[in-house]
Amino acid sequence: MMGESVADASGRSEQPQLKRVMGPGLLLLFVVGDILGTGVYALVGDVAGEVGGAAWLPFLVAFAIATITAFSYLELVTKYPQAAGAALYAHKAFGVHFVTFLVAFIVMCSGITSASTASRAFAANFYEGTGIETSKVGVALLALGFMAALAAINYRGVGESVKLNVVLTIIEITGLVVVVMVGFWAFTRGTDIDFSRVVAFETEDEKNAFLAVTAATSLAFFAMVGFEDSVNMAEETKDPIRTFPKILLSGLGIAGVVYVLISIVAVALVPVGVLEASDTPLVEVVKAGAPGLPIDAILPFITMFAVANTALINMLMASRLIYGMARQHVLPPVLGNVHPTRRSPWVAIIFTTAIAFGLIIYVSTAASSNAIAVLGGTTSLLLLTVFAMVNVAVLVLRRDVRREGGHFRTPTALPVIGFFASLYLVTPLSGRPAQQYIVAGGLVVIGILLFFLTQAINRQLGIRDGHITDPAHLGSGPD
Fold first, then answer.
1. Is residue 7 part of a domain?
2. pLDDT value at position 195?
3. Where are the bilayer-spanning segments (predicted)?
4. Assigned domain for 348 exists
5. Could you tell me if 474 and 324 are in contact, meaning their C-beta atoms sit under 8 angstroms apart?
6. Is 128:301 a contact under the CB 8 Å cutoff?
7. Which of 260, 268, 288, 449 has its CA 20 to 30 A from that of 148?
8. pLDDT of residue 357
9. CB under 8 Å to 72, separation ≥6 — which residues?
10. What range defines the domain where residue 116 resides?
């Protein structure tokens, strides 16, 4: 999927045009597969823990806000049909190289926190599926091993990653169909079901219903982590101006319906306390809905494939963004090194894996509640920050009259609503736990330090204009 680097007369590495291989069907599977995954398999219980049985409501609100922001993305992606997504839009809208870098780094960090969340879910489901007794330390060690395995796959190069995504997406969807069918099976057979829980609000820490819903929505936004990834496929999509609007909105609609259905089935079959306490909430649902069937023994392994898909895509994206920023002279040049035989950005892979290791160790040892909830909430915090910026960028870029005509145009009110809704969910007013700000702040500080370190290195090397010159190539790298 990534092109091989060639050098121009000035010695600067240039990337060839990406091949447009994704038609509507493949793009739809990519969008749905990227949104479905760790969020629905691992976080349903944590969302229910915030609001009680009405866990479907935060997911519905999250998808509504994401759909509003999708209209902003659609205007931008059809106006500038290139890879790089939010970093490209920030660069064109504001023209401040530090801001462009920061947006790209935050997107990269959201991928790493998402993959770290997936690694924890992978480990929990492995122990659930095999029946091996373990501890908090055991889960953390397996999560670290899983992340190391992803690094090895990433190092070897994943040239057929889109096709692999199709296979893993089908497995993901199969698992979710199984859960929904178990729900219908239980409903028709008179299993112990409590539909009253589906509309019940049970909040902790004396939160009112509104604050509980916004806090849960902040966490539910983890489901949107694949949203930005799909926009980065613009250069590899056939006729993106015509294809992207209907496919992105269709993918969001399909994923939204699945999340709401799964949430309703989960809380109707399993008490909220049990869902919240479990790292494998959908396994608890299957056990309650079909106790005589061996499905609960299979679902943990399906979940492992599903979260592996999320983690692999996000670590690929993160390492390529780091590689691209190093090649643009906004990160230390060593991070742009490519292995001579594997042709993979091996230093960037080590760097992003090291950050993931640090996150897993931190949330496993810190005196916090649920490690998956902390990592998932941090991912949504980073993503919502990017969403707020994109909603501003779409309005700023309307002054670019050279690009007017022939592209999708969103009603002006939608970016305004999207900006204020995203900004509110970023702030502590939404009920977001402080630990998520600590993790996100630590990651941003790392990025800022690296940026200024690179400026010092550039001065030593005599590179006076080291900055992002072409954000469209930030995510490009060797296969």
1. no
2. 74
3. 21-44, 56-74, 94-117, 137-155, 167-188, 208-227, 247-272, 297-323, 344-365, 371-396, 408-425, 437-454
4. yes
5. yes
6. no
7. 449
8. 96
9. 390, 391, 393, 394, 410, 414, 415, 418
10. 24-473
